[in-house]
Design goal:
The chain is of the alpha/beta class. About 20% of the residues lie in helices and about 25% in strands. The radius of gyration is 20 Å and the shape is globular.
Length: about 350
Amino acid sequence: MNVDLFDFDLPQDNIALRPASPRDSARMLVLDAAGMHDRIVTDLPASLRPGDLLVFNDTRVIPAQLEGIRGAAKVGATLHKREGPRRWRAFIRNAKRLRDGDTIDFGHGVTATAGDRGDDGSFALDFAGDEPVELLLERAGRMPLPPYIAAKRPTDARDADDYQTMFAQEPGAVAAPTAALHFTPALMAALDAAGIGDATLTLHVGAGTFLPVKADDTADHKMHAEWGRIDAATADRLNTVRAAGGRVIAVGTTSLRLIESACGDDNIIRPFDGDTAIFITPGYRFKGIDGLVTNFHLPRSTLFMLVSGLMGLERMQAAYAHAIAGGYRFYSYGDASLLLP
C-alpha cells in the first residue's frame, strides 16, 4: 500500500509533553460495533465484558541514551537491541565520526568499543569491564524520551517515573509500552471487580519503533526485530479465555505484535521466546487478539498502519480527525483509545 495513505496533519498543540495526572484520568476514545464514544480511561471496566482479559507488557525501560566523546568529537548513542551480555546495537548521533574499533568514553567510568555498522546505520557497541551493563547505564545513561518530546523539552527527574508503567519488571526496553502508562492500582482493582482479568508477557521495545517509514510502499519497509517472550502458562491462559468466549485485549501494540507472532493459523497462541519483526498493515488477518488499548500514533508510522489494519483505514482516519478536532492528546504521554473490531 502507498505510505501516503497513512498520512495526516497533526497540530503541534496536540502532542502531549507530560502524562495526565492521575494517569487514569486521560481521555479514551472507544471504537466498537456501536460507533465512536468519548470516554475516560476510568470508564474501561464498563467498556469491556466480564471474562475479558487484558494483556500487558512487563518490560522495563532502561536509561538507554548516552552522551560520550570519541577523541575530541562528541558522540550520542541510543541503544535499541541487546545482542549479547555486553553488546548492544545502537543508533549513533554524529556517526560519521565513528569507525569500527573506536572507543567512546561515556563518563562515569563507562566506555564502549564500536563494532560493525549495520545496514540501518546502527553500530554494535561492546561495553568494557565486568559490571553488568545495566549498572553502567544507571550511572551514565538517561531515560530515552521519544524524539517528539525530547525536541521540545529536556528529560528531567519526573520522567524516570512518568515513562515507566506500573507493570515494569523485566529490564531491556528503550521505549515504554505507552498504552499501559494509563493504568493505576485503583483502575486494576476496578477491572478485577468487574470480572476482567489480566496477564503479562515481555517484549523489549526498541528505538526502531520511532523510525519513520522511508519507503513509498509498505511492501518495501523492513521492521526492526525486537525480542519477546510468552511463557507456556500465559499462552494456555489466553487460549482458555478465548475458548470460554472471553476476549483477549492487548494493551499496547507491543503486546499485540507479540501475541500475533506467537499465534498460528489455527488461532492457537503458543509459547514464544525470540525475535519478532512482524509488520501489520490493512489486509492482515488477526488470529490471537480481539481488541486493543493503544495511544494515538504518528502519521505515516507502522503503528498507525497497525491500527488501520485492525479497524479499517477509513474508520481510523475518521477517528483521528475526531480526536484532533476534539483536542485529544497524542503520542507517548497522550490519551488512549479502545479499539474493538
